[in-house]
Amino acid sequence: MKYMSITKRWFLTVASLVFAVLVAVAFLVYSLVMNYYYGAARMTVEAMNAGEINSIFSLYGASNSGFEDAARNYAENFQNKDKLAVWVINSKGKVIVSSNGFSISDDVSMPDYSDALSSPDGTARWTGELPSGEKIMAYTCTYHYNSGDFGGALRYMVSMDAIDAQMRIVAVIIASVFIIIFSFLIVSGTLFLRSITNPVRNIGEAAKKIAAGDFEANIDHYPYNDEIGELCTTINEMADKLGETERLKNDFISTVSHELRTPLTAIRGWGETLQQIGDSDPAMTKRGMDIIISEATRLNDMVEELLDFSRMSSGRMKLNREKIDFLAELDEVVFSFKERSIREGIEINYNVPTFPAPGTGDPARIKQVFINVLDNAMKYTEQGGKIGVSAEMPSPSELIVTVTDTGCGIAPEDLPHIKEKFYKANNTVRGSGIGLAVCDEIMNLHEGRLDIDSVYGSGTTVRLTFPLETAAKEKENE
Ligand code: ADP
Prior knowledge:
The chain is α+β, with helices and mostly antiparallel strands. It has helices spanning 6-45, 50-57, 67-77, 111-118, 161-211, 227-277, 282-313, 326-344, 363-379, 435-445, 471-477; strands at 85-90, 95-98, 123-129, 135-144, 150-159, 322-325, 347-351, 358-361, 386-395, 398-405, 449-455, 459-467.
């Protein structure tokens, strides 16, 4: 679609519509005022009605004696004399008296007189210009003698020049009001639009920079608290968040590379050593092989963790659900940590009642969560520390497994973030920062919860909540 600025679109739509409405209103007002003035002029010229005129001139007849005097007398004294001129026209169409005293030539054009002769009520009106250029409104009203013969007509005339001058003033006033309103609209509209388009342009420029990877790009201060202000704040927050994620991602890549390199170096080193010593030292060979196997297992676990994370990020993490006993899985995991705990000098107090905790879940994934949580507890606890593993059922449909440790704890400012991907609160201990994010996702997929509490410097408590299969639920599912 072709680019068109908001301002231009506003001009083409709102401004042109307002312009059209204003023009229509201006014309309407102008014609109403003109109708009013012309109506007033018409009422003035038509004030004398035919009946009244007939009663004045009907006395005279064919002899016409005294008629001219009567006509003159009428023309000198008729009402509205200050506003109107009157001509008395005889039966032959000749103007015999005019109220302003001028004699009128026979060939003067009187369209209203001609029309009145043929009109049923004997009257007609005409508006037009005199040869002198003066604009008038004329009204002719015919009269008859008592005998019934056509007597002639009276022609009343009012000058329209004053009215037209008045109308010109009205037109100027209307045009001025129109220009003032329209200019106000254009100025206020342009200023208002600019207050939108300028920040939107800034937002666009900042968004382009952010898209190009410049997460430092920030939108300048926007002075109003409105939708655009909210958008600016959101985009600034988005840039900060993207910058933070970028930083975490870079840290993650370097941590993971480092983590991968450590076991690889050990494997290679031991491989070379074994190559050199050959079969000469079976004890050394066994030790080397053990280390190679355990480092290869560590590498494998890390790659698995990375693959899980990638599955989680793309929403491809699937569960192989089956009926399981959560505590049986926990039992196995805690048992597998026994040897390590002795080796590292950390005491595990495993205190789990032997009640059944049936539910539906993926046993491998559930174990993965327990392993991760216990691994963290071991990693972040010094030699001589203690780890407690306990379980309780606050209701028949809920199991809570709690793992506590007396380790380094988590700082309050890190606590809300540690479930986020790549987030590491402690860089002195190996780890990629994705373990808890994966665990949290697994717990969510099982409709469970992973909650962490910690007191910095004295220990951490991880609470895993699982929904259990109750007898009623089991029945429902069948
Ligand atoms: P990592 O592989 O780095 O341990 P996790 O996602 O498992 O990543 O944990 C994220 C961060 O949470 C860790 O870097 C660590 O700082 C903190 N953390 C997790 N468990 C504990 C714990 N039991 N005690 C102290 N800190 C912990």
